[in-house]
Design brief:
- The structure is a homodimer.
- Chain A has 4 domains: about 70 residues, Barwin-like endoglucanases; about 50 residues, Transferase, Pyrimidine Nucleoside Phosphorylase, Chain A, domain 3; about 200 residues, Pyrimidine Nucleoside Phosphorylase, Chain A, domain 2 (3-Layer(aba) Sandwich); about 80 residues, Alpha-Beta Complex (Aldehyde Oxidoreductase, domain 3), CATH 3.90.1170.
- The radius of gyration of chain A is 25 Å and the shape is globular.
- In chain A, α5 crosses α10 and α6 packs across α12.
- In chain A, strands 4-1-3-2-5 form a 5-stranded mixed sheet. A 4-stranded antiparallel sheet of chain A has the order 11-14-16-12, with helices on both faces. In chain A, strands 6-9-10 form a 3-stranded parallel sheet, with helices on both faces.
- Helices cover about 40% and strands about 20% of the residues of chain A.
- By secondary structure, chain A is of the alpha/beta class.
- The two termini of chain A are about 35 Å apart.
- Chains A and B meet through β3, α3, α5 and α10 of A and β3, α3, α5 and α10 of B.
Amino acid sequence: MDVQAGGRNIAILDNETAGFMGVHSSDRVKITCRNKSAIAIVNVASDFPLNFIGLYEEIQKKLCVEDGESVDVQSAEVPESLRYVQAKIRGERLRENEINTIVKDVVERHLSDVELAALVTALSIHGLSMDEIETLSKAMVKTGSTLNLNKRPILDKHSVGGIPGDKTTILIVPIIAAAGFTIPKSSSRAVTSAAGTADRVEILCPVNLTIGEIKEAVKKTNGCMVWGGALELAPADDIFIQVEYPLAIDPLLLPSIMSKKKAIGATHLVVDIPTGRGAKIKTIGEAQALANDFIDLGKRLGITVQCAVTFGEQPVGKAIGPTLEAREALSTIMGNGPPDLKEKATGLAGLLFEMLGIKDGKQKAERIIKSGDAERKLRDIIAAQGGNPRVKPEDIKVGPEKAEVISDQNGGVLWVNNEDVARVAREAGAPKEKAAGVLLKAKLGEHIKKGGVLFEIYAERNMKLEAALKLAYKLKPVGLSRRPEERMITERIPALIERKKTFILER
Amino acid sequence: MDVQAGGRNIAILDNETAGFMGVHSSDRVKITCRNKSAIAIVNVASDFPLNFIGLYEEIQKKLCVEDGESVDVQSAEVPESLRYVQAKIRGERLRENEINTIVKDVVERHLSDVELAALVTALSIHGLSMDEIETLSKAMVKTGSTLNLNKRPILDKHSVGGIPGDKTTILIVPIIAAAGFTIPKSSSRAVTSAAGTADRVEILCPVNLTIGEIKEAVKKTNGCMVWGGALELAPADDIFIQVEYPLAIDPLLLPSIMSKKKAIGATHLVVDIPTGRGAKIKTIGEAQALANDFIDLGKRLGITVQCAVTFGEQPVGKAIGPTLEAREALSTIMGNGPPDLKEKATGLAGLLFEMLGIKDGKQKAERIIKSGDAERKLRDIIAAQGGNPRVKPEDIKVGPEKAEVISDQNGGVLWVNNEDVARVAREAGAPKEKAAGVLLKAKLGEHIKKGGVLFEIYAERNMKLEAALKLAYKLKPVGLSRRPEERMITERIPALIERKKTFILER
């Protein structure tokens, strides 16, 4: 039919034809053409030609069948894993072989979207035991590609995300690699945020390396910063995300993250858990519970894990949006840049050093920046991945459209709303329009005068700039207050505020 | 694109085009063409032409847009009801306006299959309160067609199903109508069974009447027996079924049934709950709980409900399959036929009479059959719906292919497995090949000799007959035993028996 079904194996039968076969919508058929056969999920349509079967591109290519060719179509059993999906709906614990069967059927696209949605909904409601999480993580590794560097230790870091402007990876990888350790970092692109690490790094060099190219780059420089999306590290996860995203549920957070770490061979991992109002994790109690799960799952997978609860109440650094962030990261590794970014990066890198038995890890990380070793290593990595190693911060062009958001009062910054900052940056065009974004001019605790600039908005197109500016004045992502004794009421809310669905999907 | 999406409003965008719009798979877009606009759910494809949007037939027709015409496409908000689906996943109770919004969005196809699957899964796990069930039932009535006969009382009967050969409706409707009461009965076709009531009645006369035609038929004869599927009585339910069926869950049983009864204006309803091993409902306790729910919901909807727990351990009568069953029903109303069928039909009709204050209802129903009034009324109804009122049982042709299943021992019938009987009848071609099916020659407690006929299989095609015969000897749907003191072991099970998924969907 010359139409793709988003990876799904779907075939169309006419109502009448399906009726005579005893096949309903969502049933399976086995289609055989010459010596090849494949299972497809049936959509029943009316007004489709009798005794014809319509094949979407995926199943047509799998069968190598030509338009108009005769195929044999027979009703087929439902996949075994559907029984286990039903068991999970009933709240039963899944056994190892059952989880393995589910993951295999997911990767081979034998489960429909309806069945996958039921599974993630049931997992979200009933939860998973740590045994199930372990088995699921291992199954997701087994059904995907892996990176074998034949080295130990392999270091890695991960952030559970949710904080705009978090470009610490661009500092941590060079610091670790400069110290002689191996850190093959794979990252995601933004789904719901203003920039993912892969989007940021791509400003400096290509990120879509193959497994072979990663091996070569790491051989040269000890580290890399690549996009994980095309590496097929845990392909089941990419399929789960397709149904989790519209439902705004994320029951597979742990196996999703940890399977990808296992697949690249990580032996030591630091997990950054940004915590606070406006972060995914609101309280230290939640952060500790999540940390425990990461550490426990790490043990089961043979990965030494330590977690860091980090301050998550405002963006990291001042720049939000791929290009603005790449420029800020480069400045910071060169010794300038905002202090909180440097603090966070050296703190996390220091934790990794200390996990390997090195004392005073943070000081070591700071020395590696100060000596210029981190900058040189970053430039080596940029060169190894095919970028320009001599790039200067001022070469990295942002905008060109630009506007300032002005304060209408004196006051100290009381909040910088993570979600609203990200929304303004997205409205300006980020992450697809890479030079768009937000540059904060004031952060928590800083003082600003009436008429002063709260933040700047950058955009590639004037229309988007205008839209972002309008949204910025509506949302007021940066809130000021006078001293409490001067004014206790910081904002009036005269009527119901309509909120968009908030769901941050970063993996 | 000249392809139907099964009623769904789906549009296709290329990966690149979607990226620039900030739209992901499963997001919504608002498509505007001249003065019409509609919301569609996006599927993102690769290799699709840039800056083009692919429209499936449903959305293309809604917009009246021509191939190649320019349309305006904008990212649109998710429907409000998605928030309530998410609330139900979290286990929250839904309020009246929230349920109304969900049902409206379901009927207008604003929710994707993934979202619908998540909803029915969450409903299946968390259950519904009776308040939620009531609101949902009313919302399903409000969003569909209704039948207004301007009469009281309006009688109705319903079976929760699961028992092959249950053709009691074909007797009950004429009995009630012959007594002067109004009974506009709508029924379903088989989904997973060997015959639905609409399939059975269709052997005698057309069943796909419009609301207008129903009114006319009922005016003439007091009753009708029509297919409810095209009447749009509770269209939300038909959409829910599409996702419930592959998951084999049925959380909306009560609102599904009762909304349709309310839509045809029923004031008095008897619900048949077949109970026993091999039935949907296994124990009297379960049957009583379900009965309570029906009665409670009836009160809330203004319908007087009584329930009957009926013997459900074997098929009703001896015939299974549309044609065989129509012939048996006709024989029985003419005074012949199997005694259990007559017993059940007069018992249920009698209950309806007694609900209206008539004493000795069952005896009244028996008299109506004996006098020939029921038969005359059935023939009037057949005529009013466009069938041949002079049809004789022997005119109704079954087969023509026929085979006998022979007993290899002497013994009394210990079980007649409902599910296996239905599977054999389906393998023979029922319900689509109408003259196919099973005719039992022995029922529970009857004695059969070695070499005697257990049941006959009918089919339209020899290939199907052979397949059904093979399945029959494998499944052994009729089990015999000698007296216990002769042989206590009735069957050896030497290895694991593979079972197909069992899920009976009858509405």
